[in-house]
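To the wet lab folks,

You asked to see what we're planning to order before we commit. Fair enough. Below is the target structure as tokens, and below that is the sequence we designed to fit it. If anything looks off to you, flag it before the synthesis order goes out.
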């Protein structure tokens, strides 16, 4: 079971898989592989491989080998993707805040000023 969960999480973490799922969820009906390729601007081998992975995990299905794809759990997939986007936005905001803080700290941290060495015979 843990292996299947790990594979599922890997697929959901994959950018191409998320693009495919989003396109299928947003579509007014099932989409063929060729429609997905045209819509996403990805190579046919990439889309084919990821569709196969998504189909193996039961996230997408089609009636026959030549039929268009559809999301199996549309509402759950839509909810999951919305939550993932919220998490990504929160993470991006946190990273941005941390980067701003680090940049500010770097600007405020001055390297010790070094005095020019005095010449021989010059009074200090």
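Sequence we intend to order:
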């Amino acid at each position: 079971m843990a292996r299947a969960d790990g594979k599922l999480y890997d697929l959901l973490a994959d950018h191409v898989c998320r693009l495919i799922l989003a396109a299928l969820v947003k579509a007014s009906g099932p989409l063929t592989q060729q429609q997905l390729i045209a819509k996403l601007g990805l190579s046919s081998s990439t889309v084919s491989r990821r569709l196969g992975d998504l189909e193996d995990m039961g996230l997408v299905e089609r009636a026959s080998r030549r039929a268009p794809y559809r999301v199996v759990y549309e509402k759950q997939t839509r909810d999951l993707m919305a939550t993932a986007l919220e998490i990504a936005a929160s993470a991006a905001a946190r990273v941005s805040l941390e980067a701003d803080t680090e940049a500010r700290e770097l600007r405020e941290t001055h390297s010790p000023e070094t005095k020019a060495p005095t010449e021989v015979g010059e009074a200090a």
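Structural context that might help your review: Residues 32 and 67 are 7 Å apart (CA to CA). The mean pLDDT is 85.

Thanks,
Computational group
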